[in-house]
Amino acid sequence: MNQSTERELRELFAADAADAPDELAVAAAAVRRVRRRRRTLTVSAATTAVIIAAGVYGVYRPAATPQAQPPVTSSSAPVASAPAADLPAGVEPGDPLAFGAAQSCVKAYSPQALAENAFAFDGTVTGIGPARTERSPHPVPLDLRSVTFQVHTWFKGGSAGTAVVDMASPAAGGATGAEGAPAYQIGTRLLVSGMPRWGGAPLADAIAWGCGFTRYYSPSMAAAWATAMN
After folding, report:
1. Residue in 123, 152, 115, 118 with CA at minimum distance from that of residue 230
2. Rounded CA gap, 188 and 216, in Å?
3. DSSP 116-156
4. What is the C-alpha separation between 93 and 223, in angstroms, rounded?
5. What is the 8-class DSSP label of residue 99?
6. Which long-range contacts (CB under 8 A, 24 or more apart) does 88-91 make?
7. Is the separation of the CB atoms in 183 and 165 below 8 Å?
8. Residues ≥6 apart with Cβ < 8 Å to 220
9. How far apart are CA 181 and CA 173, in angstroms?
């Protein structure tokens, strides 16, 4: 090989070496690109997490503390108790309710006769109003009042917390041993029994019977009524 040719070859290799990238430089550049990409991804992920968290906490609201609700009351539940009324003078617990001296009795009182009545209950008077069972014309009009009771115990004929029954007016004849005193009033607790005045369901046009079939309350008489109805 002559000197001219050798010189040309050296110049050519030198040019190629100059144009070719250094391997270490290429590797370093690659590492820098990877690091930059990781930082970019890390920042991007952190930003996304912040955005998501902000969205979640923006929507979330702590559950409100439940407010106490008033108890639900059934329409058949007993009404509020009326203050207990004193018995008329001369009357003892368990005595028959006086509906007037002129009243005639359809049948005499007995536990067996009581059990034949359509309804019977232990209740307290909570209201007194106009009669509901009167029909016109009626050959013998009666002095009746519609009486609302809070029912404590049903012996027969019903299950609701209240009952409405027509009864002789509280002033129709006075109470036993107390002429002119009301036979019953708001707050009086009674044992009441009777029949539907015009037939039908037990409490359809219900009317209370006197002659011992309606009485002032006493625990012993209430127990006797419970026994008679069983």
Report:
1. 115
2. 8
3. TSSEEEEEEEEEEEE-SS--SS-SS---EEEEEEEEEEEEE
4. 13
5. -
6. 88/174, 88/175, 88/176, 88/177, 88/178, 88/181, 88/182, 88/183, 89/175, 89/177, 89/178, 89/181, 90/175, 90/176, 90/177, 90/178, 91/175, 91/176, 91/177, 91/178, 91/216
7. no
8. 94
9. 9
Please give the angle made by the CA atoms of 21, 25 and 30, to the nearest 5 degrees. Answer: 105
- pLDDT per residue rounded down to tens, the chain (230 residues): 555 655 665 665 455 444 444 555 545 555 566 466 555 544 444 444 433 333 433 333 444 443 433 332 223 334 444 566 778 888 899 999 876 544 567 789 999 999 999 999 999 999 999 999 888 766 567 789 999 999 999 999 999 999 999 999 887 544 443 445 578 999 999 999 999 998 899 999 999 998 999 999 999 999 999 999 98
State how far the Cα of 88 lies from the Cα of 133, in Å rounded to an integer: 27
Any idea which residue has 């820098």 for tokens?
A: 32
- Per this entry, what is the length of the chain? 230
CB 106 within 8 A of CB 209: yes
Q: Where are the alpha helices (DSSP H) in the chain?
A: 3-19, 23-59, 111-115, 219-229
What 8-state DSSP symbol labels residue 100? -
> Which residues does residue 130 pair with via DSSP β-bridges, in sequence order?
145
